[in-house]
Amino acid sequence: MILQPVLHPILLALLCAVPAFFVVRALVRGPSRGLWALRLGMIVVVFVMLLRPGIPGGTSETLATDTDVVIVVDTTASIVAEDWAGDRPRIDGVRADVQAIVDEYPGARFALISFDAAAQLRLPLTTDATALISSLDVLRPEVTDQSRGSSIGIANRMLADTLAAAAEASPERGRMVFYLGDGEQTASSEPESFASSAKYVDGGAVLGYGTAEGGPMRKTTGQGSESGGYIEYQGQPARSVIDEDNLRRVSEQLGIEYRARAADAEIDLPEAPTSTTDYAASGEVGNVVELYWIGALALIAMLAVEVALATISVVRLRGLARPQPAPAPPMPARPAPTPPAPTPPKGGIG
């Protein structure tokens, strides 16, 4: 038998001692001792439940990926070009693939960097994968009216700084980078190089989105919704096309593979560094069979008895308080019937 109390046992004892004192006093001094004994039993059961008793079960191995995963996402206007799974925006594919990355590396720490006209650290390294997915859900491309062109390498310095800080804080952890974008360079300058980050990278991939035919892009306002219209160029809807040469160049700079993405193809993710995914290194976690539910059943039974007794008392009190009907007044005695007068004989006197 083992105990896993929700609070320190001394604190639990103090919390239960106050109601127990009043119940014991009523049990000793007052009537209805059976009812007060039942209430004392409830307090004891609650105290035992809060101690969370259990018995040791088996053991199970857990996998912990001691890896830092930095995700770099393109948030330029082209990320909502509608050529994913037919006419869906590319960012739908980005979100689905990030979820796959989270599922592939359980226990890893994740960071999120977005880039358009500038790079932004959306989420520092954290083991909270839910926060990463939430950040992706609210991620919106840059405002169309404020767009002045963007570079696919604008996030190079922020990525290098994030990786360098992670390597300094935890040199024993592996580091992976996933770059998700379409490779379209709209700035007039040459894209910056990611070569300074390569020495910190142990794995990852550059994932490309879009098609050679391209897709139209809806205007964005930055208010969390699309305006409904499309970006136009020379009177026609502008189309964004994937630039795989640029994406391959980024993958070469980072020392990782390039992989084109399509909605009808399963994502192929690389394995995490083997030194960070050893089951034996993760250890074993003992399972405990919880027994508090037994106390919960006993408490429910006691409460049922308490409710039943209270119901009986209420019904009895209502019966005593109900006014009794007044007795009917006695009926007045009827007068005795008067005897009829004698009938004279018929005929004359003889």
From TrEMBL:
InterPro entries recorded: VWF_A (IPR002035), vWFA_dom_sf (IPR036465)
Transmembrane segments: 6-24, 36-55, 291-315
Region (Disordered): 212-231, 323-350
Record's keyword terms, sorted: Membrane, Transmembrane, Transmembrane helix
Ranges of biased composition (kind: Pro residues): 324-350
Domain VWFA: 68-254
Annotated Pfam families: VWA_2
Source domain of life: Bacteria
Name of this protein: VWA domain-containing protein
Origin species: Microbacterium commune
